[in-house]
Structure prediction request, 282 residues.
Amino acid sequence: WVAGLKAAAVAVVSHAVLGMARTLTPDAPRAAIAVLGLAVMVLAPGPLAQVGVIVGAALLGMIVLRRVTVPDRPGGGLAVRVPRWAALTAGASFLVLLLVLPVLGRDGGVLGLVDVFYRSGALVLGGGHVVLPLLEAQTVQPGLVEADTFLAGYGAAQAVPGPLFTVAAYLGAVTTAPPSGALGATVALLAIFLPGALLVVATLPFWERLRTMRGMRQAILGANAGVVGLLAAALWDPVVRHGVTSLAAGALALAGFVALLTRRVPPWAVVGGCAAAGALLL
Prediction:
């Protein structure tokens, strides 16, 4: 059944890449940015390369997407008001934690686990499946979580309601170094959501101005295209490389992908069906 869950992860991430490509790369310039991001990640994988791809894609968006029609965002201002001092404090806290935690957590332990998941939550752009390459780089590559365990949990997470970031609780529970179990799950879950909460507070007073800046919106379009390249790279490694270990596993992943394309089968049913098929066939 674990092999079936890994096949389910292949199906779900493949479907996510296709859907994001249709939405975020609808023209040649943005498709080119995505392909460039994919090439960078294949040639030089790693967390720093992921950040470089997002920043580079945003800069390219400001340059090459000048002729792309940027849709207007109608609507009034946000009802939530945050004092500027609170926003600046939250923004400063975000940056300080991002810079200090790698130093404080270099010996592992609780602070090491906080650093791993805080960094994943801080550097991700777009949410959802986009967090996959960052989590894989921060947990699997250093040996904190086994690759098969990572993919099996990621596949099972598709059947759970709520944001995909909650897979951090599973990863924190199954880490090979302490803390793990319930404590590891709690630490990882809080750490991955903390940077997003700080950024929301930090940007609220300035959001109405930022959202009307054409250059900022072009940068976001470019960054979103770069994210497609990131996820495509993660689809190949580790998802396909570790999830398709046999012809039967490949056929099961393909069947799950086709089921998702029909839009008649929900992801949780694909996950359950792949797990059951894996227990019988793989």
